[in-house]
Write a structure and sequence with these properties.
2 copies of one chain form a homodimer. By secondary structure, chain A is mostly helical. Helices cover 72% and strands 0% of the residues of chain A. The A-B interface holds A 30-35, 112, 115, 118-122, 132, 156-158, 165-166, 168-174, 176-177, 179-180, 191, 194-195, 197-202, 204-206 and B 30-35, 112, 115, 118-122, 132, 156-158, 165-166, 168-174, 176-177, 179-180, 191, 194-195, 197-202, 204-206. Chain A binds a DNA duplex (18 and 18 nucleotides) through residues 9, 12-13, 16, 37-39, 47-54, 57-59.
Chain lengths: 206, 206
DNA sequence: GTCTATACGACGATAGAC
DNA sequence: GTCTATCGTCGTATAGAC
């Protein structure tokens, strides 16, 4: 009960929580919310299933918590890109790089979870609306960069938000593709941005 | 037991099977395999849950059957595109149109199922390998069209299979996006093909 | 803080009546 | 061909020992 011990305990608690959360992200991502069992999550972290409830109140609560955390990180990333001292093209390149890197697999798990949360049915309406709102903030942030790029003349014309949607569709589609194969598969930022750039297809204009 | 009656029975049987299969596709797509309950499938078709097992031997069997059927249809579509008397660009336009139309929602459900099958974990290895092989046939078919288009000078340079992957990533990403929103959202074939076409971004070359 | 044992509910699948 | 009733299993969540 000395302060010293309490700190030790807190350290262990935090570590276990993080291990379980990390494991949960992977299991949710690979199996989906319904199919990912508590025992999958705990055993992947080499802990007993009973311990799960020492750290979280329910599977669903953890799921929601994790999704929101991931989305918050993604929004932060987009905002970070917006604040860079770079051209809009440079910002998009930085953002695309950052999205597709980040210890590879880990990042893929997290993004797949975003997709699951957006496209599946097991969340109740209020939570789902909140998720969608968070996602929209990310889209808006990207749209801002694109709009800027249009003014600079680097990007093609069109509704910025729609273009942002197309960009994310491609980026997410490629993330999924990458998740499926064991081979690393090189993801070229340039190729992802190809569809945005103005007459930029390899500079093959005439 | 007269022939007449047998025909009637067969007709009913076929109809019920189709209703259940249709319902299953929607439920699997919206909820995922694990979360889609037998009772969800049957009640959505206004039938009792017991009846399910009169028509199918198990949930998993139906799931696999449905996935393979959908993939076979997709492959057929791609091959059909390949055989058209059109330019490669015309073929891609036709294919993209066909993929994104088809009673809208129905088509979306089916494509989401493809994604689920490819990216989830609940299929055993042999089945999964078969699914992947089927999908590869579709990708190859698209790559063939793209290669043709490169020779005609309509499409940008690059490995055809990789470009096909990018194309499908975008197409799938947009399908998902469309699945999420209640609003119809216009999907422009031209915009989807934008990333493939050579210096074709609105014809803004100089 | 971590574990094992157990209560309880849900769902896939079957049996049998109509 | 369709339904309701039921079994058996599995998974979430809890209780309590260490």
């Amino acid at each position: 009960m000395t302060p010293k011990n309490e700190e030790q305990f807190k350290k262990i608690r935090d570590q276990r929580q993080q291990e379980l959360r990390r494991s949960a992200i992977q299991m949710f991502s690979q199996k989906g919310f319904a199919a990912a069992k508590i025992s999958d999550i705990t055993s992947h972290a080499n802990l007993s299933h009973g311990l799960f409830y020492h750290y979280f109140t329910s599977k669903e609560e953890l799921y929601i918590e994790v999704i929101q955390e991931i989305l918050a990180d993604f929004i932060e990333l987009v905002e970070e890109a917006n604040e860079l001292q770079k051209s809009s093209l440079g910002k998009m390149e930085w953002l695309t790089d950052a999205t597709h890197s980040g210890s590879i697999r880990e990042g893929v798990y997290r993004h797949i979870l975003i997709l699951q949360a957006l496209y599946s049915d097991h969340l109740n309406e209020p939570v789902k609306l909140e998720i969608v709102a968070l996602y929209k903030r990310a889209v808006d942030g990207i749209a801002t960069i694109i709009q800027e790029g249009q003014q600079e003349g680097h990007f093609i014309e069109g509704d910025p938000e729609e273009l942002a949607t197309y960009h994310l569709a491609l980026a997410h589609g490629l993330l999924l593709w990458n998740a499926r194969t064991d081979s690393p598969i090189e993801l070229s930022t340039e190729k992802v941005l190809r569809q945005l750039k103005r007459s930029g297809n390899g500079g093959m204009c005439q």
